[in-house]
Amino acid sequence: MKAEMDKIVSLSDEENIPELQKYLSTLTDDQVCNKCIVCACCLGSPPSSTAGANRRLLLYQHCIPLCESGDLQTEVAADIIGLLMLETHTLSGPSLATLGSLFVDAIKVGKMSSGKSLELFPTVLTALAACEALSYGKGELSGEEYKKQLINSLCSSRWDPQCVIHLTTMFRDVPLSSEELQFVVEKVLRMFNKLDLQEIPPLVYQLLLLSAKGCKKQVLDGIVGYFKEQDTRQEEEQKHGDSLDLEVQSIPQDQLRHVEGTAILHIVFAIRLDHELAREFLKGFKVMYNITSYADLCPFSVALLLSVARIQRYEEQVFELLKGAIIKSFKDEQLQQGSKLLQDLLPGHCSVAQMILDTVQNSVFGWDHVTQGLVQLGFFLMDAFGPKPGPFGKTTEGSLAVARTPTQQACKLGGQVLLQGFKMHEPIRGEILEQVLNRLVTKTASPVSHFLDLFSDIVVSAPMILLESSSKVTETFDHLSYLPLATVQGLLKAVQPLLKVSMSLKDALILVLRKAMFSSQLDGRKSAVTGFLLLLKNFKVLGSLASSQCSQAISSSQIQVDVHSRYNSAANEAFCLEILSSLRRCLSQQADVRLMLYEGFFDVLRRNSQLASSIMQTLLSQLKRYYEPEQDLLPPVKLEPCITAHGDQVYLQEPLAHLLSCTVHCLMWLQNTRQSANPNGDDSDGDEEEEEGYRSDLHAILESMTRRMIKCELEDFELDKSAEFSMGSSVGVKNNIYAVLVMGVYEVLMEYNFIKANYSKRCFEEIIELFSRYHKLSEILKEKSGKGRVPSHKTPRSLFSMGIISTSITVLFRDNTQSREEALSVLRSNGEFVRYILSVVVQKIQQLDETGHTDGPDGQNADKTFRFLCDMTSVLMWRYTNIPSVVEEGGKKEKRSSLSQLCLEGLLRIFTTCQQRYPDKMAQLLSTMGWTSSEKAVHFVMNYFYIRQFQRALFTQLSGGEEDFNSKEAQLLISILSVLSRQLKPSSQQVPFPDVCVCVWGFSLPLEDSAFCKGLLSLLFNLHVLYKSPVGLLLELCQDIHSELGDIDQDVEVEKQSNFAIVNMKTASTAALLVLSQVDRVLDEVDWLIARKKSQTASDKLGCEATQTAGRQDPVEKAVTLQLGTLLTALSELVQTALLLGTCTVTLLRELTRTYTILTTLVKYYIQVCASQHGSLPARFEKLVKLSGSHLTPQCYSFITYAQVLGMAKLLRETKAIPNLIFSIEQYEKYLITLSKKSKVNLMQYMKLSTSRDFRINAATLDAALQEQDDTTETQEPKQKKRKQ
């Protein structure tokens, strides 16, 4: 063999080609294929001769498997393949076809696993495509067609998973038509599930390079679809891990996430280089965004979007898309939750919010390229959907417990993304914290409660992590005196856990607060008071009494630090006393600053009882400034020092009533706590004498004030009926301030005497005496303020605490203890006092609803406040159900509310407040009301039971006749039923939900009360829509309205209908407006369903079976057609009704316009369906078109004429209602013509020729006008002649 090789090499070196050819022809096939003689074989096998061509083909046929076998060194194999590639163009057409088939057959049997020889295949295919004609079977094919057949055969065969990446790489070098490229891409995407997970990223990379030829959307959709499928499997395995077949090999979650992260990096890299790929990706997401179900969206695609957002040119576009998808998802979810029809048609809802939260969870697996996008998205959502400033920059206080609206939910989602990101990713913590704190400092004109909530959650969940960035918090402290008070309070409350473990943070805060105490801005000084009070509450002096109320301080499970192990008792006490001395300076500042101090002292004392002596001494000395010590002098308080004047303006300087209230609450709490801690009085503590001293002094002052305030007449305060109370003069302002102070003092003294009374008749009599003085002054204020053009009197906020109010109504209505009967009769016999207590109950609950807290002790304590609500609910319910309003004296003659109405108003406010502030505790609230059994009742069953109780009360009201009907009380009952009905679950089998509607339905009695009719029908609609579509109900109501108001054609007699007796002449217009608002809601649902079907048809033209299949129709299409059919019938009744001119008529025209617009949308949908499918239109749709043409359109034109004749032209011109309606009708008919052509069905046969609106002659009107003109001429002629003479 060596001799043969030497001979061939020498002949080759001499370039003696004829001798080389002659020698090669003498060698066997095996000798020719030796790797060392390939080059020489090519030289010695001229393609022009048959033998040379065959030898060359034989060389290729043997060299390709040899290179693929792995027996050769890599460099040698590469050299051989390179040489063969250079010589491929010399092969004949049949040889190329043979080689192509060789490659395809080798791939089919899995002999191309190494992929070394696949580099030659693109060259073969390219050369093959250049051939003019090749024999194929019994005929001939062009080279291009033959290449297509090879590729089709290759893509239809089975591929070895090991060669998928090599084949994908190979196809990059093959010229492919769009059809061939689609074959290849589809085949590669199908192979994804057969590859090992670790092979996916390189395949994704090669596929993205291949996408440069085209099929970009298909490639991206396939990659995203694969990872979505893997995520779904992971989720199913986590949910049903025990029940799944153990033989199924599951992919480890961490491996999957790492592979997903790598794939995202590859895609983003490809997008940076190919902007066309980015456009296709974003375009695909926009289409997905338009589909209501978001079926193709998944955590992987969200992560991919966030990574693409790092490219600056796409950042804004990506976040706008995500923002739109999130808010649309929440809106769709809200729409589905409020409609039983939509729930039945489309039971599942894909939550975009959950996908984003899943993306946050997945990003922990090294997705650093996603985390920055998550941070930006979180702040983008919070900035875009956070609370907005109200009128004049004011905002409602307190944040709601539950995010209810889509914007609130989107804002909450942004906070969740940032909070989870802060916990999981160390690199972004500094940025999140810095941006949150920057917004707290800079957004002074906008509400920042959502950022405060986020900051508080960060502190509670990761306090030790936050301490690493304490310098940023310290920098924020420097701006405290310039921030709004609400922001300061929220910020200081949030950092409270950190102050306990960070001495430097606490010292920095104290330094800032001391500076703020001397700020020129009032808010700065108030901020200082807030901060100092917070410190006093949370740095307990060792030895302070432990009480259940002391455990309310915010703490974290991650902070297990004993304060006293770090700061000793003496240091804490000195620290607290130093703060107290700073706070004493506030007692010489403005009333607002003093007020904050008085409201905070009670909580400080309760949590730090060792400071009692300092606090009580401070309060005592302050109180003595305004107390008249001479027992014989009246009044016992000095009011003049309580006000100050600046020019002509008079201001309150000392909120005396609040000072007195704070003193009373601190004194009584301290006394009760000492007694419970030392019931036998054996304690001989050194502080006891001092404590006894100020306690006795204060009791003496309060007793003296009670006695002397009872003796006082209004003249003693210069506040009799002759006094001026006008707010336009300084004297009137001063008298108003005096009156409010005196009323507050009376209230505080009433509470003091009630607490210490211990059911003493004498004390209760003193309370009534105090109340009579209070009531007299209150009546004078009301009388005086009502004389002006605009009543200027606003009832001052009561100083009664929630605890005393709860106790008061309990003893007034439910205390049956025999020994207390005589004493309680003193209070119960005074009707004005009972009414006053109930009005205070309503006022306190209203304050809680609006601000989230109440004044006085425990007003900030959510748990205690809720317990008070439970107690009051039980008492108010008992009072209302056990004492009928008919037995109350003067209940109907007087204009003011009866006691029963006050009870109902209180119950309504409690239920509303509980739903807003304590949504998870509604069941607990209901369980405290009467009638509960010993067993724990199920929430919704109890709720249904209470609904029944209020329905009975409403039925009693309605069955008493119109004379006994109390409209206010009935409306309150309706409102309560509306609130409680929101807790019902229509899907629950335990509650016969339709019965609730039937009960309300049955109450429809002939009452001519528009307000009551509005409330009752609103309740009926709200209940009905939760278990059934309301279109049938709307039709019946429209028939009643038409029957009551008559027809627009006076010659037509309308058939008498009486589906609802409450619809009569006086209430019909109100009912019509409610019906139209409900029509709008139904149209919303129908429009949403049509949009969903349109987008599905557009995204998947090969989707579901043809809608036109005989006897079958898509359930969504069927529901849309039925809804619109019933709605058209109802509107045809209304449009024939002689409605009163004004809002009702304009609203009807707008709803008609919208109805035709939605009909046009439905017609466009069927045009789209006919374009992609072939068949007949559904019979129901044809009936709908017929109904619109025969029953509605002609009536619309008649109604337009009716409205114009009755003189509404100006109003209708301003609203453009008529032109809009006519345009929508004409658009509807225009697209019906198009659909008729597409479907070969003449739909226009049902349409009548439209009336021309720009020129119309009414013959009857013309004749009447001409006749009138003739008569006028005859009568006026003599007069004209007379004037001429």
TrEMBL record:
InterPro entries, alphabetized: FANCI, FANCI_HD1, FANCI_HD2, FANCI_S1, FANCI_S1-cap, FANCI_S2, FANCI_S3, FANCI_S4
Domain FANCI solenoid 1 cap as annotated: residue spans: 5-34
Domain called FANCI helical: residue spans: 276-362, 547-782
One example of a Gene Ontology biological process annotation: DNA repair
Pfam families xrefs: FANCI_HD1, FANCI_HD2, FANCI_S1, FANCI_S1-cap, FANCI_S2, FANCI_S3, FANCI_S4
MF-aspect GO terms: DNA polymerase binding
Domain FANCI solenoid: 54-271, 370-533, 800-1020, 1034-1263
Name this polypeptide is given: FA complementation group I
Organism annotation: Haplochromis burtoni (Burton's mouthbrooder)
